[in-house]
Amino acid sequence: MGCGKFMKVASTSKWAPTERHPEGELHEDLGFFSWDKTRKLFVLRQFHVEGFVNQYIAEVVADAKIVFVTEAIENIPDGWRARETYTFLGPEEFIEQFELAAPGKDFEPYTENRLHRVAPE
Fold first, then answer.
1. Given its phi and psi angles, is residue 96 left (phi above 0), alpha (psi -120 to 50 degrees) or beta?
2. Could you name the domain of life of the organism this protein comes from (predicted)?
3. Any idea of the CA torsion for 97, 76, 108, 61, to the nearest 10 degrees?
4. Are 28 and 16 in contact (CB under 8 A)?
């Protein structure tokens, strides 16, 4: 997509084998960040291999942090919410926190990843 209007992100997470998942687990998602001119806010849309589609809006945008909270989630029971927080540690590194909230509950941590830029091969 060379239009310069969207930023694409692809993610793969691998979990070590457990008793419940002896071969480990693999999660993949594809996301797009965009600017909604009408609402004047950033939107994140994620498409997960498990079939979930999350649409987030940015609730906090600061120099070193952006917080997205879902306004819609497809293919999950009503009432669930998700939150993605990106904390920037510098131009080469950031922390991504993903949290879930069951209906009527507060957000609870689900995953946290520290990502850093690597030199191209």
1. beta
2. Bacteria
3. 40
4. no
Q: Which residue has the higher pLDDT, 4 or 98?
A: 98
Cα–Cα distance between 28 and 48 in angstroms, integer? 6
Q: Which residues contact 57 (CB under 8 A, 6 or more apart)?
A: 36, 39, 41, 42, 43, 44, 68, 69, 71
CATH class for the domain made up of 7-12+26-116: mainly beta
User: In 3D, which of 118, 59, 116 has the Cα closest to residue 88?
Assistant: 116
Q: Answer whether residue 50 shows pLDDT above 60.
A: yes
- Tokens 């498990």, located at residue: 50
Tokens of 120: 């191209």
